[in-house]
Write a structure and sequence with these properties.
With 130 residues, the protein is α/β, with parallel strands linked by helices. The chain has two helices and seven strands, in the order H-H-E-E-E-E-E-E-E.
Length: 130
């Protein structure tokens, strides 16, 4: 009886919600601290097509049919170890195994940047703005 009285007293004095600092640590989700830089994306990439999962994605991308209008030329690597420079991407089998998750959009105006797949490894990379 004494222990149940002590427990009920502790529960009455304890706050119902966690303190704001602890809640901020739990709810904090890492996001990019600035504009998205497509020239820094390499490694394993998972292309998400479900717009409902937009909040879980690093950015949005449009697959450009023409090479001339793309921001980044992408070469698909078979092995993640060889995808070590900009434009060299290895397809991840699932979202959880990817370094970057990008949402593919069908409207170019809604994309952060555009890509075009190339068959030549040496052409892969960012286009210079000069």
């Amino acid at each position: 009886m004494f222990f149940s009285f002590l427990l009920s007293g502790l529960l009455a004095l304890a706050p119902a919600f966690p303190p704001p600092a602890a809640a901020a640590l739990v709810a904090a989700v890492p996001h990019a601290a600035g504009p998205l830089e497509p020239c820094k994306i390499y490694g394993s990439v998972y292309l998400e097509t479900d717009p409902g999962r937009r909040t879980y994605c690093f950015g949005t991308v449009y697959v450009e049919p023409e090479e001339a209008f793309a921001d980044v030329l992408v070469f698909k690597e078979n092995n993640k170890l060889f995808a070590d420079k900009a434009g060299l991407w290895a397809e991840a089998p699932a979202r959880d195994f990817a370094d970057y998750v990008l949402l593919v959009v069908t409207d170019r105006s809604r994309a952060d940047f555009s890509i075009h797949y190339t068959n030549v490894r040496s052409f892969a990379g960012c286009k210079s703005n000069n």
